[in-house]
Amino acid sequence: MKLPILAYGDPVLRRKATSIEPDEYPNIKQLVNDMFETMYAARGVGLAAPQVGLSMRLFVIDASPFSDDEPFLTNFKKVFINACIMEESGEEWAFNEGCLSIPDIREDIYRKPTIAISYYDENWKHHEEVFSGMAARIIEHEYDHIEGKLFTDKLSPLRKRLIEKKLNDISKGIVDVDYKMKFPAAKKGR
Ligand code: NI
User: Fold this and answer.
1) What global pTM score does this model have?
2) Distance (Å, whole) CA 145 – CA 44
3) CA 170 / ligand 1 centre spacing (Å)
4) Is 142 among the residues known to form the active site?
5) Phi and psi of 127, rounded to 5°?
6) Distance (Å) from CA 101 to ligand 1 centroid
């Protein structure tokens, strides 16, 4: 089932998400499937639970669209539950990022290239792994979501001012988007 994606301005996107326990969400696999379906329908490479209105430490990614440049990413489809980034290292590099909650805006964002992360997968198996390149970038972006942060937070004050109106429009639903969203400041009937 596809879920509506919360748009910029929704307070859930600003909340630090809480950890989940295995017995708290026996239907976690159904939710994970729904999140993948929602993400693919919107042609995203990552989606975090707060973006579908659930303030929990869960995100999914599929980095395979980047496998042309980084063959390692072929079938790089993963679920991260209760993730914790333990270390970020290396020289920051820029990449033009977007976000399904902020349609139509893309900005160059600097992030560190390597991360060490601990997390559980959808079978509640624990992992401690190191990722680099695009995999690390996508994980860092989604990890920010469960921390209540958005990529636009990383922009310079000038850049922020330049896109401010566009961000306000997005929260009102004044944006062209071909997947289902929930707009926090939309007038009734929009
Ligand atoms: Ni995002």
Assistant:
1) 0.96
2) 14
3) 14
4) yes
5) -135, 145
6) 6
